DNA sequence: TTGAAAGCGCTACCAC
DNA sequence: GTGGTAGCGCTTTCAA
């Protein structure tokens, strides 16, 4: 920057102001400086700027597993909200390991990130010790048990009730739920919504939990289910990936979908459309959730945190081909 | 850090050395300092460290679209290779927009990242002007037309030849290729491998290109194909996502897979196992590619770039259920 | 083995 | 509107 200043025959402070587009520099001077910057290919040093201005213009997104198909589109939404304000997005995969999450979250403390968007459902210990942490953290997609942190989510309970209602309307009553990890409030909420809806319909709830919510988990849960007596006529899965695993196993065992068994997924990932049969599922507005989360974080970062905002977006049942009407003859 | 120094009753420089685990500090002193750091929850300031040491310990991964299912697992591999050496990984989605890529790549110039792993097949202009850029860049998954940059990839041409050979062996000869964007060397190579294999078998190659390689692209390409006279008996897709789109469209039109038409995918994403029928495809070692790329970048960062290394990993044909034997009666 | 001190490149405050 | 300048928090060289 000193070089630029010399070349432009102004003081270094003027260059700094010009580059920050301060109104206290003539348009003329700015133009001259901009030209020189252009010519020399100069870029400001991120470290120095961070050191001085105590901000990195980086947002850290923490998620359990970057390979879970449901997350990337949320990230896309966050990027959209955040980029035009000069922030860039950094994604960290915690592999559901609290320790890894702590390490990654340290980026906030060291100043490498100005804010964190949590999609893990876990508030890192180190963050809780950060002054005004509620100003720097937003939970998206996965709730965090902390009233001070703004949250963006859908109503998982209600979504499951929607799913159960759909199956009920088709004449099913022996419906089981293939759940995700029940230490996660998200999957707890889904299981609870399922139970509540079943009970109020006078049906008997049955939940088969898993440690994960990917394809493999769906396969294994389905294996366990099929080993049981008294096969259900319909299944609600905690994620589309699980549903796909479960359906593939069932199909492999000669079970016809939806004739013999109906399936509902959760997430509406792009692949659910091209399944055979196409998967009926609960759509969640991932992109919008990301955008909302990004917006809130940005606002809190610049204006300070007010009362923690709690955004609940709408889910939607997408009826495709994986659910059949139950004939009374059964 | 000054506080820590005061509390430990040593000089700030000693604290710095202790934290860097320099051998020039007594184990005793180190221990005392470590304890105080622990108690106070102190973390070094990332900006200041960057400013002084001119390194950020961050690796930037640039990819076209974070939502393309094939990429995340490569990122996982990179993380594996890089994390234990104290680097963290930053993912940037360019949306295949060269301009966005330039903006993201600036992170290298500003010092926010020490190195870049390119999965876009495009070398950013700004990087080319960076001194010793070949030391800071590795191309993974997508080749870059620059001999100075190390590359990690599979042999896309050979992989397609494998795919064609498989179909040939099943009796097919009217095989068309649903290609991805042909401005990408990767998809060019795949198309070329296909053409070469077809020609040397005395068969007539036919390529239908697309602007993308996602599900939608597969659907649209298949639509175009089916509008043509003279339907092929087998189709090789440039990606699994395309194959899934194409199969779903074909199935919707009453074409039976694999009885009426065979399909081969490319990538072996997790979903290909649970398709109905399960997708025969070319497996590419994404995790390994990521790891290799991360390792090379790290080495170049620390030891300087030697001759650009060119790693070619092995692909593998995975035979599942989407290809049928062509009966001679046809 | 430890201390002192010089900056890294920038921003922001204060003067003019 | 512009210039001068202190200092952000750290690393590293030099001296002791």
Automatic annotation (TrEMBL), chains A, B:
<dbReference type="InterPro" id="IPR000843">
    <property type="entry name" value="HTH_LacI"/>
</dbReference>
<dbReference type="InterPro" id="IPR010982">
    <property type="entry name" value="Lambda_DNA-bd_dom_sf"/>
</dbReference>
<dbReference type="InterPro" id="IPR028082">
    <property type="entry name" value="Peripla_BP_I"/>
</dbReference>
<keyword id="KW-0804">Transcription</keyword>
<dbReference type="GO" id="GO:0003677">
    <property type="term" value="F:DNA binding"/>
</dbReference>
<dbReference type="Pfam" id="PF13377">
    <property type="entry name" value="Peripla_BP_3"/>
</dbReference>
<keyword id="KW-0805">Transcription regulation</keyword>
<feature type="domain" description="HTH lacI-type">
    <location>
        <begin position="1"/>
        <end position="53"/>
    </location>
</feature>
<dbReference type="Pfam" id="PF00356">
    <property type="entry name" value="LacI"/>
</dbReference>
<keyword id="KW-0238">DNA-binding</keyword>
<protein>
    <submittedName>
        <fullName>DNA-binding LacI/PurR family transcriptional regulator</fullName>
    </submittedName>
</protein>
<dbReference type="InterPro" id="IPR046335">
    <property type="entry name" value="LacI/GalR-like_sensor"/>
</dbReference>
